[in-house]
Amino acid sequence: MLCLCLLLIRTGGIIPPVARQLHQENIERIVQQALSLSGVCVDELSAVATTVKPGLALSLGVGLDYSLELVQKYKKPFIPIHHMEAHALTVRLTDPVEFPFLVLLLSGGHCILAVAQGVADFLLLGQTLDIAPGDMLDKISRRLFLQKHPNCSGLSGGKAIEKLAQQGNGLHYKFKIPMERHADCNFSFAGLQSQVTRMIEQKERTEGLQEGQLLSCVSDLAAAVQYTVTAHIAKRTHRAILFCRRKCILPQKRATLVVSGGVASNQYIRKALQIVGNATDTNVICPPPRLCTDNGVMIAWNGIERLSAGLGIFHNTEGIRYEPKAPLGIDISDQVKEASIRVTTLDFTSDILKY
Ligand SMILES: *[C@@H]1O[C@H](CO)[C@@H](O)[C@H](O)[C@H]1NC(C)=O
Ligand SMILES: *[C@@H]1O[C@H](CO)[C@@H](O)[C@H](O)[C@H]1NC(C)=O
Ligand SMILES: *[C@@H]1O[C@H](CO)[C@@H](O)[C@H](O)[C@H]1NC(C)=O
């Protein structure tokens, strides 16, 4: 079964008209390249699958217009794809994961906890109320001028924090773990970002630094930020597992947690989630990094999943529109809140996580 996919690059920090122009300039070449590398022609495709939601309107529009022309010209079925659904299902390309499973999506644009009950059947347990963890780590990294640090040259913001955190003490500076009084599964990172920024400003004054100079304590700050972000994510995930068990949404034994998105490649966060998994008899799986970040393969895979399941395949594309905003599945975050599940303290022998 063959499926052509159109990837839409992530829009964080991209200027809309520029993004549209980039898409228009590249879409034909990328599609031709994908076809020639796989040695197939458009005629041989079973269907065309394209991201239609959520995302930046101008970019989604370029992909959709191009795809609709293609399916009309070649008389192919069309499969509209939800970007976050694609992230959630990618794991099934590499691992034999059966429904239902819990999925945690961590990236520069998203932070979502959901249950995948079927190819097109999701329960939303929680999501970020403000910014995403990848976005926050990037901003803190820039604010700390980590690109000037000798050990961080060429690293992205998130990777720079991870690298420096390895040589720092995560418990030397204390930040408040977000939303501790809310026993739900929503996330928040904006308040933490403000806390950290205030601490950086204070330290800069104390050390009498000029704009752009590195603080002496960058490693400890990076470690403390990473620790706090991780504790927040781990606690929400822990609660989600307990909630799903209580409501019999997931198997009582050996449930599966899939962690995906660009931030899922952070080894410290992974290890913390592994500890949560160990404590709750949950199998933790991360797709390989190249499938964790935004990619076209996952859109194609989602197309294949939908094609096999016979779900959401359009032969008449009239009325198909892109949707910049689109929730994933049915929002049951209120039920999670109602259950008011207190997460038991996980006390670890390794000092990585204590909450
Ligand atoms: C860079 O990393 C090395 C090895 O981890 C470490 O010994 C060194 O202190 C670090 N340099 C700085 C400026 O932190
Ligand atoms: C989780 O448990 C397995 C098996 O008991 C163990 O090998 C592994 O080190 C544990 N992982 C963590 C992060 O504690
Ligand atoms: C979780 O966040 C969503 C918005 O992202 C909101 O609609 C929902 O009410 C929140 N749930 C709780 C329990 O606060």
Structure description:
It catalyses: L-threonylcarbamoyladenylate + adenosine(37) in tRNA = N(6)-L-threonylcarbamoyladenosine(37) in tRNA + AMP + H(+). GO terms for molecular function: metal ion binding; tRNA N(6)-L-threonylcarbamoyladenine synthase activity. Residues 10-301 form the Gcp-like domain. The protein is an alpha/beta fold. The protein has 2 domains: 2-88 and 293-327, Nucleotidyltransferase, domain 5, CATH 3.30.420.40; 93-292 and 331-353, ATPase, nucleotide binding domain (Nucleotidyltransferase, domain 5, 2-Layer Sandwich). It is built from 12 helices and 9 strands. It has helices at 16-38, 57-74, 83-89, 91-94, 133-143, 157-165, 190-207, 218-246, 267-279, 289-292, 296-309, 333-339, and strands at 3-6, 47-53, 78-82, 101-106, 111-118, 121-127, 255-260, 282-285, 330-331. A 6-stranded mixed β-sheet has the order 8-7-4-5-6-9, with helices on both faces. A 3-stranded parallel β-sheet has the order 1-2-3, sandwiched between helices. Helix 1 runs parallel beside helix 2, helix 5 runs antiparallel to helix 8 and helix 8 packs parallel to helix 9 (267-279). The longest helix has 29 residues, at 218-246. The radius of gyration is 21 Å and the shape is globular. The relative contact order is 0.18. The model is unreliable at 1-12 (pLDDT under 50). One 2-acetamido-2-deoxy-beta-D-glucopyranose (NAG) is lined by residues 126-127, 129, 184, 186, 333-334, 337. One 2-acetamido-2-deoxy-beta-D-glucopyranose (NAG) is lined by residues 150-151, 167.
